[in-house]
Amino acid sequence: MNETVNVRVFRGDAESGGWRDYAVEVEEGQVVLDVIHRIQATQAPDLAVRWNCKAGKCGSCSAEINGQPRLMCMTRMNLFAPGEPITVAPMKTWPLVRDLVTDVSFNYETAKTIPAFKPRPPEADGFWRMQQEDIERGQEFRKCIECFLCQDVCHVIRDHPANKAAFAGPRFFVRLAELEMHPLDTEDRLELARRDAGVGYCNITKCCTEVCPENIHITDNAIIPLKERVADRYFDPVRWLGGKLFGRRRP
Amino acid sequence: MAQAVAAPLRRGFLTTLRHDRWWVEPALVFVSLSLFFGWLTASIVMDWGPFGNYEVEGTHLLSPVFEPTWLTAINADWKGAWYLSPAFIVLIGPVPFRATCYYYRRAYYRSYFLSPPACAVGDVAPSYRGESRFPLIMQNAHRYVMYVALVFVPLLWIGAIRSFHVPGEGWGIGIGSVLLALNAFLLMMYTFSCHSLRHFVGGGLNCFSCSAWTRARKRVWDYVSLWNEGHRFWAWSSLLVIVAVDVYIRLVANGQITDPNTWSRF
After folding, report:
1. Average pLDDT of B73-83?
2. CATH of domain A3-102
3. Do A159 and B123 touch (CB under 8 A)?
4. Backbone torsion region of residue A83, taken as left when φ is above 0, otherwise alpha when ψ lies between -120 and 50, otherwise beta
5. Is the CB of A235 inside 8 Å of chain B's CB atoms?
6. What is the pTM (predicted TM-score) of this model?
7. What is the CATH number of domain A105-246?
8. ipTM of this predicted complex?
9. CA A66, chain centre distance (Å)
10. What is the tens place of the pLDDT at every residue in A80-131?
11. Residues paired with B170 in a beta bridge
């Protein structure tokens, strides 16, 4: 059954902009991205929106729907009560390019600063071997689709843009945790996590976990374990002394 | 028909495009934590007035806030020269354990610090350094208070088990003793589901399969991980129950109500 809904979409760029209201016909089963496409097709052909797979896997159509960071392609229209106002805005944390499109290059630049996977030498037959139980934790993190919603909602940079120079954000704590927990990796990234990536800025408010469309337990499984590893190295004199006396390395 | 109205890009305290009731959770947490911790703070020093007794005479029903009772003996030794509430012992373990707990940090950073009050709602502070600077960098001490909090788990169980015994009457069961056992169980689960404990038992390993020792740690880590998923539940339920048990035992100890139990045949 079709119905007409009023959707309020942000139109403009970094210099000027405002809301525009569109009355759009919605069909059963449609998502917000369908509605945006219908607006493009029927009322505003110049409406800028970034999208690709329309299946919640490419991470392109991130936006703020009724103030909540979400993927437009995974937000069904029947989520909203009849008559409920619907607003679609660009992600607030990134510089606005136009309409719903933002410049997320901060994330690509930050990704370059994280040292890549560096495996130990292979075994005698030239292969590396890992046990499933050793890489299960990292497999959760590899579900990340890089939609950057966790980055967008993180108040450390959302409300304090000056912190972008000192804080990598939840997506990259997931990446750091994945590499640090890898059974074959030999690179040490804890100093990077503490000093350059600023894991200490995180105050565990878990918004990143709440908005993750892949349901990655970002805070519990990546950020807190990373904080604990940093605490092992820099804030735990007992472990420090033990390391000095016994020279033990983490297996 | 399209019309221009406002820009959504400004920042500032409480600025948001959300129009759901995002303020309900931080408000409820603020009220609840204030009430529970307010009561516990009062309880630590309250050994006077109509609710002054915290131990039921002739039984082992003792408010868990006052467990263990070492300071009672110290006070007796000093013969009133300097009074220290027996409950001050909780200040070296349970209180800092909760204060630096990863779940409670989420709760009070949102509800008290308003940093941020809710997801995608403007932060109160004009600048922010989080836990990277003093004093909040001290949150990294959570592991140490966790070690102390672990000591309280058997102490609370000992207190709970003792409450099933009345001197001269023998073993039995009553509402008070069941509540004390429930309190010990919930505090144990809250402690055993701790993020720092999870890291301590195995989370810090990169290779679980490397030896029999690391495989054993993996098994413990699996259990703690399972319990850790409910850390918020354990945090709230244990807090609610310790307050409820403290109130209940004070009501019994001060004669306002009677504890139904097998010794008095209900």
Report:
1. 60
2. 3.10.20.30
3. yes
4. left
5. yes
6. 0.93
7. 1.10.1060.10
8. 0.92
9. 19
10. 998 888 999 999 999 999 999 999 999 999 999 999 999 999 999 999 999 9
11. B166
